[in-house]
Amino acid sequence: ARDGPRVRPIHGIVRAMYGNAIILAPGAFRSDHAKTAHGLVRGSERFAILGVVDADAAGEDAGTVLDGQPRGIPIFATLNLAISALDPRPDTCIIGIATGGGRLPAELRALLLEAAREGLHIVNGLHEYASDDAQIASAAAATGAKIFDVRKPQPKNELHFWSGQIANVRAPRIAVLGTDCALGKRTTGRLLVEACRGAGLGAEMIYTGQTGWMQGGKYGFILDSVVNDFVSGEMEHAIVTCDAEASPDIIFIEGQSALRNPSGPCGAELVVSGQARGVILQHAPGRIDFKGHAGWKIPPIEEEIELLRLYGARVLAVTLNHDRLEPAALIEVQKKLAGRLGIPVVRPLEAGLAEIVPTIRAFIEYEASRKKT
Amino acid sequence: ARDGPRVRPIHGIVRAMYGNAIILAPGAFRSDHAKTAHGLVRGSERFAILGVVDADAAGEDAGTVLDGQPRGIPIFATLNLAISALDPRPDTCIIGIATGGGRLPAELRALLLEAAREGLHIVNGLHEYASDDAQIASAAAATGAKIFDVRKPQPKNELHFWSGQIANVRAPRIAVLGTDCALGKRTTGRLLVEACRGAGLGAEMIYTGQTGWMQGGKYGFILDSVVNDFVSGEMEHAIVTCDAEASPDIIFIEGQSALRNPSGPCGAELVVSGQARGVILQHAPGRIDFKGHAGWKIPPIEEEIELLRLYGARVLAVTLNHDRLEPAALIEVQKKLAGRLGIPVVRPLEAGLAEIVPTIRAFIEYEASRKKT
After folding, report:
1. How far apart are CA B111 and CA B90, in angstroms?
2. CB A178: neighbour CB atoms within 10 A?
3. Which residue of B lies nearest to A312 if distances are taken between CA atoms?
4. Contact flag A164-B268 (C-beta cutoff 8 Å)
5. A233-291 tens-digit pLDDT
6. Contacts of A224 in chain B (CB under 8 A)
7. Do B262 and A306 touch (CB under 8 A)?
8. Among B312, B285, B346, B319, which residue's Cα sits nearest to residue B185?
């Protein structure tokens, strides 16, 4: 069993969820609507990702399309072709795209119905629940396929209020925040964990989104699906549990949205309720407006750093996303920002994160000495 | 009919909800656990408040106990005594206290069962639902009493995502925030609306808590009961609807918690998603720690003002809560703070809010001129 009692269940379903999965991203794998698909292609400890369904990119390797690195994950034009070609046969399909308003469009619905008829379990992170669709539900019941609507809010009796126990957590916390949504916070978090572990540090990440859970996150919760009153308590509970069970040297917390994203500000919770005293700030210098909200300008990064300082957290390093910038322009911005801010500014996808491990080590030592005094 | 289509329903129940109500606050009316009861005694346009049940304060007038101003609202030792004595007979009972973890303790449960048997509708804002209690539910069904669990999250198809429409709202917004929870934000908001209306300004308040709804708020939502993803959209929707229907000169938005309250930070939503460019900041200078969290210090008010400035909002005035301070000491603090901050600092409960109406008027004019240019 790859699963253990430390894994936080979502609606009590975790034990059933390890499997061989295919990602549904019809017409979208090349676009940034396929954020979940991209995360799963980059890596998942919860599912073996066997293939992707997207007619627009069929015939290619998903890794090659994503970032030029082949990963042995073929893209198929149809679900039927994928099931015929793959060995082992997939047992699960995962919706890998975000849709307008989180709804289930007709094309995706048809794919889910086909999957249910084929007996594939369905993992759905959209706001619209697949289990509410009578046809999909009855097809699944007939074949024994299970439907996991990941975003279904948990019942209140499974949720926690904030208690202040966070004060007793041994491992210091670093929040991985960003100046916008959808710019790589989760991926940077994964790379930070990898880099720290590679350097001999015990590192864990608290997931706060559905993709983090799909990728196999052991500790965390799905922030935007929790009734607001329980967000701080669920975060504290995830951190306390992680600290007690895994005894890491450092805990990263995956951020959501951005402190000043008008469509839903987020981040203060991590610093204030999760008491993250360090921040790694993901930034896309090529973006002018908040994603999806033309005319709503992303404010200067210096202000973001000052805002975080007032919340009680220090920005330890800035990690850059290359969106809309040529490689040379990105390096130019990197140099300028590093000079202006006086902290490490790095390009995680291009150059990895090994160079900021000493910064993280220094933060851990500083926090330990601060506790003693 | 005092109700109209502009009133936002909670679970479609608003039209049924105007009535003659009694408040249940057993053993607690004198304590600050009875925040909801106190708000309702101060005023409600949704219910006529006929009496309070609390054996510890029985025989007194609820207004006198609250702030020395009799309001003709008697306190009774038992529900039975209240029903016998009151004319008209109450048709509704409202839970007026907050309990640990929002649970329904045995004494309160017994009172609700008695109320249901007497045919009284039940308004419950606790996290634990009265309708989940089989005995209460069946007693209510037998007498025709209705149970309104105000905090039950609304179904997703009734909720809104943030859309950016806020940019088209004509009335400027002022967020009524605080440096802690439970220090009078809602009451200050009501007094602000009153003071503005008294001076001939069209003023509305967006409620964000259950008490605001119980008091008859026409526009708003219950922030802590909304699934997190919809908080910003529900706020925008309430503001947009209020602006379109009531065409006010100024909209106040009731704040919750505090920006840096570790048990659940809140406030950025109002400024960022609700685009409130002005803030009235409620502050209890006598408090050292966040309420209910000993050892978690309330940070300096200057920092709070700077934090809000970085979020894009200007603090227009500070309103003081007298908690733990003698009247003379409060006046002393008021003078010092006014000198230090250079903005009006007032005592709403002691001196009213008429003196900051010119500040609000200047804000409205400034925002109007800013829009033109």
Report:
1. 15
2. 28
3. B260
4. no
5. 999 999 999 999 999 999 999 999 999 999 999 999 999 999 999 999 999 999 999 99
6. 227-229
7. no
8. B319
